[in-house]
Amino acid sequence: MKMPAMSQSEVHFETVSKSFKRRNESALLVLDQVSLHVAPGEFLVLVGASGCGKSTLLRILAGLETYDSGRVILDGQPVHGPGADRAMVFQHYSLYPWLTVKDNIRFSRQLRVVRDQLTSSDVEAASGRSDALLSLMGLSHAADYYPNQLSGGMQQRVAIARALMNRPKLLLMDEPFGALDAQTREVMHDLIRHVHQLEGTTIVFVTHDVEEALYLGDRVVVMAPRPGRIDSVVSVPFGRQREQDLKATVDFLGLKRQILHRIRETSGMKTNRDMLEQLSQQGSQN
Ligand SMILES: Nc1ncnc2c1ncn2[C@@H]1O[C@H](COP(=O)(O)OP(=O)(O)O)[C@@H](O)[C@H]1O
Ligand SMILES: [Mg+2]
């Protein structure tokens, strides 16, 4: 069942700049006049070399980081801080080790019960939601386990379920599968695509893995470092029904090569390789 369009956030970054002050050095310009639109219900992926400002951009959107100039507009309102309309999933699972899987997922709702004195029917509705999420994540059998009894992939599924619990309109994911092995990542890719289709939530997803970006995204935004900026935006032409075999097709590999090339060109990695080649040539002459 698809959620109504109301539950999807729209984002506008308008010439957003951000720098970090450094002691005894000039300030580091991490985002230089970044403009970006995320459409309601879009699955947008940011890629780029380490240090190009991906996490900073995501943290600004989450309201966890300030910015120096420009505007960040979420559903018509400027972003001034965190809110329940947004949820974030990080690379490290950050579950509460003393709570079971079920209670980790319900945790924020239970806090609200204490604070707002929600009625028992609210609590029942919440347990319906958490059961549905457990089942969606294939975790029903593990509802009473503790985090240390789970594999990395299972822990990250709990973290995603917890993020979805309050029906966020915007799901922010910062390299969420970065610590998982290749097979588990493939499973997670299909799972998060399924979740996106089912819930309709707008997703902004950060990764440095170009294959992951192309398999997941409706669009892939390539960022470049020093200063952090948007280099190019690729509309992914594969439709929304995707299967793992897609990754071996000529079109997929062509786009992957094109994006990798942009990342190398803009990040100075090419120069490093040229230097290595020069060094090895010098070595062979001696
Ligand atoms: N709180 C901070 N204080 C100072 N510098 C920071 C801070 N956070 C990030 N940076 C710097 O800003 C740049 C961009 O960081 P980040 O957004 O984490 O990049 P990415 O996620 O693309 O790897 C990096 O050079 C990083 O060292
Ligand atoms: Mg990062």
Automatic annotation (TrEMBL):
Keywords: ATP-binding, Cell membrane, Hydrolase, Membrane, Nucleotide-binding, Transport. PANTHER family: ALIPHATIC SULFONATES IMPORT ATP-BINDING PROTEIN SSUB, TAURINE IMPORT ATP-BINDING PROTEIN-RELATED. CDD domains: ABC_NrtD_SsuB_transporters. GO terms for molecular function: ATP binding; ATP hydrolysis activity. SMART domains: AAA (SM00382). This is Nitrate transport ATP-binding protein nrtD. Gene3D superfamilies: P-loop containing nucleotide triphosphate hydrolases.
